[in-house]
């Protein structure tokens, strides 16, 4: 190997480290100081206990998160938050490496990595324990490998790529919708190796071996935290295992957005994309795709398959917080933006105005865009003073008498579970998450515990409306004590039939996804 490629790789390696370190410092400064709410609290507890979280179970996140719980810094909530910060920073490094496969300018690629890292929707996934920054890291690694190996595939590289893809499914199953794009990038390289059956066998074997990480579910089914069991699914059986892995818990939300609503969904996405890249990045991204399409048609077809494959699924997925699930589309767009900035800097008029080389102009423009994202988004992404989830959980614990039952929603029950199982606070308290209770049976759960002589409290009285129950608001916490009162026959005038999930969303809270 000649010294020049070695020097280039060494410089790229150093730049990739820098691409990760700068965002990591910023993420650490803006990261949540302790356990955060909703899915974050659930995932933190699941990582600590090696439990089973909501479908499909995300074993990769839990296993890596468990290692982070060993770190001698902060509380367990802070440590698992660190996993998101480190994953997002590492994703920036691989975005740099992917861009370097497409552009010659190292500084332009570095600026692109930071431009994405400090964009709003990317940044907010890095500051609390969640699946999406790790998902972005996996997407970025696979994209870099696909771009690097597309012209030099062999059986080892095919099986390695497929293995990493299978393992990545163990974090978030939406990686499946990116498979056509990755396959195109690999298959459209020189040599067309995919005509040979052994290449398909190598890919299938690697993917299945990687996806075997889901054997974690039956192996950890007896953990005190098992959301599949709470939902009525036995992951030790084949049918239960498949129900968990295939996401049956949220099957009703797949492709559930009405066709008439899709134009609105698309406009909403366009607004998010525009705001994420501060407008200018969207325009430059379009210019980059158009300008470079004929020169690298196969590459851009693959990127378009990645982009629209993910977008098409997410637009039809009926969840309220899909903006952070769209990270792969933002990542692909960053590549087009890098190409567009390079093309823009080479325009003679701009070159004359800047009085610098095209490479210098491109790097300066991209670094300026990254700095703008950093300044504009800092205040909105900064949750370093947000103790709200812990404060809320501790306030509820303070009012609960011994052996009480708390019936709540996804915004408070996971925090109480964290305090109970991770920090051994109020182990006497039993929690009930209404997400796992059948429609209309929340009242029965409350009555059953009241009949046992136990004190029952709830944060969602609207989901327990019944004539024989009353609610006594408790000072110091956003919850009420549930009391039994003399029974009166129900009638349409004083009974509200309500799905517990609808009741939860009426309070402005998010269901898991």
Your description of this structure?
The chain is built from 23 helices and 5 strands. The chain is mainly alpha-helical. It folds into 2 domains: 379 residues, no CATH class; 119 residues, no CATH class. A 5-stranded mixed beta sheet has the order 2-1-3-5-4, with helices on both faces. The longest helix has 28 residues. The protein is globular, with a radius of gyration of 25 Å. The C terminus is likely disordered.
What's the helix and strand layout?
Blueprint (H helix, E strand, L loop, with lengths): L2 H28 L8 H11 L9 H10 L7 H25 L5 H12 L2 H5 L7 H18 L5 H15 L9 H9 L9 H15 L4 H4 L7 H4 L7 H8 L16 H15 L3 H13 L4 H19 L11 H19 L2 H7 L3 H24 L6 H12 L5 E4 L4 H10 L7 E4 L8 H10 L4 E3 L10 E5 L6 E5 L15 H7 L7
Parallel strand pairs: 1-2, 1-3
Antiparallel strand pairs: 3-5, 4-5
């Amino acid at each position: 190997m000649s010294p020049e490629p070695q020097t280039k790789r060494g410089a790229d390696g150093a730049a990739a480290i820098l691409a990760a370190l700068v965002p990591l410092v910023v993420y650490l400064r803006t990261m949540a100081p302790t356990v955060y709410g909703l899915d974050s609290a659930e995932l933190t507890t699941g990582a600590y206990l090696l439990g089973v979280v909501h479908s499909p179970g995300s074993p990769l996140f839990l296993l890596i998160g468990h290692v982070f719980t060993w770190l001698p810094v902060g509380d367990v909530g802070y440590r698992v938050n660190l996993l998101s910060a480190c994953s997002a920073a590492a994703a920036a490094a691989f975005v740099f490496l992917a861009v370097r496969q497409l552009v010659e300018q190292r500084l332009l690629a570095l600026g692109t990595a930071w431009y994405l890292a400090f964009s709003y929707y990317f940044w907010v996934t890095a500051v609390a324990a969640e699946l999406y920054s790790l998902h972005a890291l996996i997407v970025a690694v696979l994209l870099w490998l696909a771009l690097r190996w597309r012209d030099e595939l062999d059986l080892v590289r095919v099986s390695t790529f497929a293995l990493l893809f299978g393992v990545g499914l163990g974090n978030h199953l939406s990686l499946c919708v990116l498979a056509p794009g990755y396959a195109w990038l690999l298959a459209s390289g020189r040599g067309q190796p995919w005509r040979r059956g052994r290449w398909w066998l190598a890919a299938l074997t690697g993917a299945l071996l990687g996806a075997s990480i889901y054997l974690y579910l039956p192996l950890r089914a007896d953990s005190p935290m098992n959301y599949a069991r709470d939902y009525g699914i036995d992951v030790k059986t084949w049918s239960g295992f498949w129900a968990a892995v295939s996401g049956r818990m949220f099957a009703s939300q797949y492709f559930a957005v009405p066709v008439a609503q899709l134009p609105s969904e698309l406009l909403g996405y366009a607004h998010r994309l525009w705001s994420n890249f501060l407008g200018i990045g969207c325009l430059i991204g379009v210019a980059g795709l158009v300008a470079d399409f004929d020169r690298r048609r196969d590459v851009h077809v693959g990127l378009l398959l990645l982009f629209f494959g993910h977008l098409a699924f997410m637009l039809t997925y009926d969840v309220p917080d899909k903006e952070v699930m769209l990270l792969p589309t933002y990542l692909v767009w960053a590549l087009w933006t890098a190409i567009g900035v390079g093309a823009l800097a080479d325009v003679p008029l701009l070159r004359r105005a800047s009085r610098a080389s095209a490479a210098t102009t491109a790097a300066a423009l991209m670094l300026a865009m990254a700095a703008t994202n950093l300044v504009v988004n800092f205040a909105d992404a900064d949750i370093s003073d947000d103790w709200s989830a812990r404060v809320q959980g501790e306030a509820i614990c303070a009012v609960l008498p011994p052996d009480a039952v708390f019936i709540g929603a996804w915004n408070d029950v996971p925090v109480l579970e964290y305090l109970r199982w991770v920090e051994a606070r109020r182990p006497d308290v039993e929690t009930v998450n209404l997400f796992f209770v059948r429609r209309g049976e929340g009242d029965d759960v409350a009555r059953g515990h009241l009949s046992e002589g136990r004190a029952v409290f709830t944060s969602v009285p609207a989901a327990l409306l019944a004539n024989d129950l009353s609610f006594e608001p408790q000072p110091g916490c956003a919850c009420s004590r549930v009391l039994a009162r003399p029974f009166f026959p129900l009638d349409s005038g004083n009974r509200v039939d309500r799905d517990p999930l609808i009741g939860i969303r009426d309070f402005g809270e998010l269901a898991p996804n």
